[in-house]
């Protein structure tokens, strides 16, 4: 494992101040981003990019999300310490590590087998213990539902009903929805068994959510 130095911690503090200027207000979220060493989710040759507020390729056609995007989505979840959270799209594991700073119970599912294996090893090396799965995240994890919060870290053409049905009443789904170029961030709250309230937020650009209820490439 690479070192987390005083310099790295200083770079994170500077990044957090940048995110605060961009409108992130939840101090718990900002503290989580100040705590998680983002450079350790990069290959050694690319670690100089870790504390820039930008996405970066991690292989397999995927990216580690921009810190602002991670903070924005996490803030929209309005997490409580007792929440059971499902993350769709483990990716590098960075967003998952941020979630684990806020709640102890996180399930995360990754579509790509190669990425799943490398991220599983990375998180284990960091002594982080989410429940990790490899499979079609667009279908969620019905065997482990219901969830208090569901976070989707890939762009979907629609809001999958499969995920809505896995929310507890009072729970929330945060998901980017749109075409393959631009998505609008959505938050859907389950008010009752059959009633859902939808809110729309800023536009973002994510890699596509692959799977039966996402972009089906089969």
From TrEMBL:
Transmembrane regions: none
Keywords: Cytoplasm, Methyltransferase, S-adenosyl-L-methionine, Transferase
GO molecular function: protein-L-isoaspartate (D-aspartate) O-methyltransferase activity
Keyword NAD (UniProt): no
One Pfam family cited in the UniProt record for this chain: PCMT
InterPro entries, A to Z: PCMT, SAM-dependent_MTases_sf
One example of a Gene Ontology biological process annotation: methylation
Superkingdom in the source lineage: Bacteria
EC number: 2.1.1.77
Active site location: 65
CDD domains tied to this protein: AdoMet_MTases
Family: Belongs to the methyltransferase superfamily. L-isoaspartyl/D-aspartyl protein methyltransferase family.
Cited function: Catalyzes the methyl esterification of L-isoaspartyl residues in peptides and proteins that result from spontaneous decomposition of normal L-aspartyl and L-asparaginyl residues. It plays a role in the repair and/or degradation of damaged proteins.
Protein name: Protein-L-isoaspartate O-methyltransferase
Species assigned in the record: Hymenobacter lucidus
Gene: pcm
